[in-house]
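User: For a reading group we're discussing how well predicted structures match intuition. Take DUF742 family protein. Before you show the prediction, I'll give you the sequence so everyone sees exactly what went in.
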Amino acid sequence: MIMDGSESWFDEEAGPLVRPFAMTRGRAPSGRHELNMITLVVAIKPDSDAVTLDRESAEIVRMCQRRPLSIAEISARLDVLLAVAKVLIGDLIDHDYLIFQDPPPPVETPDMDLLQAVLNGLRDL
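Assistant: Thanks. Here is the predicted 3D structure of DUF742 family protein, as structure tokens, for the group to look at:
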């Protein structure tokens, strides 16, 4: 969009014109780390060490100082795609800014007969 003879990098309807592949320098999640949307990450370096990082990566380190955050929450707060967040977080893990913990595996699947009985009981109310 051109306004007053200058280019704008923001379109009110479309949002920022920086594409996701530009943030990740064209990379997709590598699979080096088993990261999913509920994986928790926490910063292990102070945010003052992140001054040399790009804006999004520095923001991730800053957000993860106080408490562990899920990748989905980081993605939402940065307003980026989940895949972009995974690439940025993977880089920060590789450079020892963050550590991650996988969520515990599901204990066991619920008994379908029990769930059906509960559903039938609720319907009878």
